[in-house]
Amino acid sequence: MDFSQGVPEPTLRRLPTYCHFLRRLAQDGADVVSCRQIGDALHLDPTQIRKDLAYAGMAGRPKVGYPVPELLAGVENFLGWNNTQQAILVGAGSLGTALLGYKAMDRNGVRIVAAFDTSPDKTFQAIHQVKVLPMRKLVDLVGRMQIHVGILTVPAESAQTVCDLMVQAGIRAIWNFAPVALKVPDTVIVQNENLFSSLAVLSSRLQSTFQPRTLPEEDPS
Asked: Where in the chain is CATH 1.10.10.10?
């Protein structure tokens, strides 16, 4: 999701990686860390790390580095991870169920408080302790609880209809796992996660990296 205007998207995508690393350092009792140490551990350019942290408002001390607790708190604050947002999820299929059971969501700024589905077999049941409700209850619950984040894990053919309902209910940010481009007002943020595109990139890189070599033909003489 877009946490801050004017910050390059690659920076926003790297900051959570720094955060996870800093959490491990904090658990190990580390007091100070440098960009070079972070870069060595994550295989990233220390200069780029320093620029990324500057976007988050963090400045280290030359030849000393950054106090780990202070840097961790600053990055978490920038990402909004220290202020958990309540969210709804629509589509309690295989992917939706997996996200409902992913406990790290709470620690990374999102708590799913309700799920919605059209299947009578799933509604009014609990999946990973989250109640699944029928779609007709979505608008009322979102408005009553003032929820602004929606997670979309429905088939492509249903995605735009559900998206429209989310927008109508007051959702301002949609995390979209459906393989379709959603049409939303300018006031609504959409972050697309296309799993199949990522898989295609992975498969292509794998094929090009491990392409079998053609052996030279033997000389018949």
From this structure: 9-79
* Stronger pLDDT, 3 or 87, i.e. the higher one: 87
CA distances from 219 to 213, 214, 215 (A): 18, 15, 12
Fold annotation for 85-200: Rossmann fold (3.40.50)
Indicate where the chain has its CATH 3.40.50.720 domain(s).
Answer: 85-200
Residue type, 139: V
Secondary structure class of 44 (helix, strand, coil): coil
Are the C-beta atoms of 2 and 191 separated by less than 8 Å? yes
Q: Is the pTM of this model over 0.85?
A: no
Q: Are 142 and 167 in contact (CB under 8 A)?
A: no
Hey, what CATH class is 9-79 in?
A: mainly alpha
Contact 143, 132 (CB under 8 A): no
Strand residue runs (E) in the chain: 32-33, 66-67, 85-90, 110-117, 126-127, 130-134, 149-152, 173-176, 189-192
Token pair listed for 131: 């109640």
Tens of pLDDT, residues 11-48: 988 999 999 999 999 999 999 999 999 999 999 999 99
* Residue type for position 87: A
Is residue 139 within 8 A of residue 146, CB to CB? The reply is: no
Per-residue pLDDT band at 91 (split at 50, 70, 90):
very high
What pLDDT band is residue 1 in, cutting at 50, 70 and 90? very low
Dihedral sign computed on CA atoms, order 76, 77, 78, 84:
positive
pLDDT above 90: residue 202: no
